[in-house]
Each structure stands twice: as structure tokens, then as C-alpha cells.
Design brief:
6-stranded parallel sheet, HAD-like_sf, 282 residues, Rossmann fold, alpha/beta, single chain
Length: 282
């Protein structure tokens, strides 16, 4: 679905964020690599920091082609299966954060699982990203929880990661994808989704959570939940300069610049070299 880009209030001058200039699945597998319905009693402990990476238009960027295909897919599904016009499907999204939430809020009969799995079967036109793979190889999983946090379903996110050649770096049974099902079908436009995501990784304080996302509304909701925020893209999908996004703590041109603003989530090159030398000696 289209992503909203809402300008900051004119009554409150925006606080300039840190800006970094751009640098010169199978169903079985998905079930095993997604977080769904974890017991609340097991979620509240722990003191690690957490890094949450959005998938679409964050881990890759293709001029929002995938987002447009998803919009068309959702509209076609609504017309074919639900008898709803394109205009109505867009209206549901704008009013409720996702079309699915709109269907439920307005009590329009639908099959939730069929809707989610069907509308996300779109063509992906991007391929492996060696530079991203190298960056992810330096993530410090020992001191941080790193998760893909998507507003879509895990099956779609996993396909994207496989196309990028990074699935095994970000998704394991111990580090499952957090998707719309994981957060009890809350939209990332609302802070409740971030509160649930925080509990899933057992991080006690919101300030220890960081969201990396391209969607301005998601960034605002995460900030309202007490998270640190990084917006990807110096300009929004609709042309607004991200320097005016008050809720963004950092602005980067692409995901590849992440280590320059969040070095605490990465192992330094010297430490990596020492570990490699030790491994060779053993």
C-alpha cells in the first residue's frame, strides 16, 4: 500500500536531525522464521539494545516499484474478491493505516490469511546487493538484537531478503522476522505495533530500540513509542525533504550508510581482523 508522508506541524519548528550525505520460501521456512504469538510472560526481560530494519524501500530501493505493484495487487484483490473499488481500497488505507485494518474496522467480510498471502505475490525486480551483504556481516549480534520488522507478511519479506542475497544473515530460528501477524495485526502507523515488537525481543526500555525505516508515518509512531529513529532517504516518496522530519534522529541516503551513524551495532574492523586471526590460529 502507498506510504503516507505527513509534514511536521507549522506551529513547532522541526529539530534538525543528523544528516549523513549519500556515500561517493517456502511456507515451512516462513513458519519457522517468523515471530507469532510469543507468550507475553517471556517477553519482558533483558537489557540488550535492539535494531529493527524495515524491509521494503529500506533494505533495497527500486524507485518504489514494489510499493506500486503492491498497491495495484491490493486494489485488484479488493475488486475481484470483495467487490470494492480502487478508490475505496485507497480510502481504507488512508483512514486506517493499512487496507486490511480498514476492512476489519468497517466490518467488510474477508479472509485475512488469503488476503495477506495473495496480495504480496508481486514481481521483485532487484537482485543481490554485495555491498549490503558486506555491511551486514559486521553486525554485532552478540550485544544486540537485530530483526527485520515489516508491515507486510514474513513470506514477502523473506522473498525480498533472498533476492538481495542476505536472508541467512538476518533471519534464523533465533532471529525470526517480525511481521504484521507478529504484532497482532497492528499497523506500523501506530505505536502499539512498536510496543509489541519491543516485547518480542525482550528489551526492557524503549530507548534501547532503534527503527530504520523509509516511511515517515512509521518513524513518527516509533518515536511516539520512545524509540530512536533513522529515516532512509533524503527526500520522501512525495518529495518532502527529510531534514524537516522532526521525529527522525538521523537521516541517511541509503541503508549502506548505517554504520556511520550507528557504529554501536557493528563490530569494528580491528576486532574482526583479530577474531579472524584467532580462528586461523585455532
Amino acid at each position: 500500500a502507498p506510504k503516507s508522508a505527513i509534514l511536521p506541524s507549522r506551529n513547532h519548528p522541526p529539530r534538525p536531525p543528523t544528516i549523513v550525505e549519500p556515500a561517493s520460501a517456502t511456507a515451512r521456512l516462513v513458519r519457522g522464521l517468523t515471530t507469532v504469538g510469543a507468550p507475553r510472560a517471556q517477553m519482558a526481560a533483558g537489557g540488550k539494545r535492539a535494531l529493527f530494519l524495515d524491509c521494503d524501500d529500506t533494505l533495497y530501493h527500486n524507485g518504489f516499484k514494489t510499493a506500486e505493484l503492491l498497491t495495484v495487487s491490493i486494489a485488484q484483490y479488493c475488486e475481484t474478491h470483495l467487490g470494492i473499488t480502487y478508490e475505496k481500497s485507497v480510502e481504507l488505507y488512508k483512514q486506517h493505516g493499512t487496507c486490511l485494518k480498514g476492512l476489519e474496522a468497517e466490518h467488510i467480510p474477508h479472509d485475512r490469511e488469503h488476503f495477506l498471502e495473495t496480495v504480496h505475490r508481486v514481481h521483485l525486480d532487484f537482485g543481490a546487493d554485495a555491498r549490503l551483504r558486506e555491511m551486514l556481516a559486521r553486525l554485532d549480534h552478540g550485544s544486540s538484537e537485530v530483526r527485520v520488522f515489516t508491515a507486510s507478511v514474513a513470506s514477502h519479506a523473506l522473498r525480498c531478503l533472498e533476492h538481495l542475497g542476505i536472508a541467512e544473515q538476518l533471519v534464523t530460528p533465533e532471529r525470526p522476522i517480525i511481521d504484521v501477524k507478529s504484532v497482532e495485526f497492528r499497523s506500523k502507523h501506530h505505536r502499539e505495533a512498536f510496543t509489541i515488537a519491543q516485547s518480542l525481543v525482550r528489551v526492557a526500555e524503549p530507548a534501547l530500540c532503534t527503527l530504520v525505516d523509509d516511511n515517515w508515518t512509521n518513524i513518527r509512531a516509533a518515536k511516539a513509542a520512545g524509540w530512536r529513529t533513522v529515516v532512509v532517504g533524503h527526500v520522501s516518496r512525495y518529495g518532502e525533504p527529510a531534514s524537516g522530519l522532526e521525529e527522525a534522529d538521523h537521516v541517511i541516503g541509503s541503508i549502506h550508510e548505517l554504520p556511520t551513524i550507528l557504529p554501536e551495532f557493528f563490530v569494528c574492523e580491528h576486532a574482526q581482523q583479530s577474531a579472524a586471526a584467532l580462528a586461523r590460529a585455532e
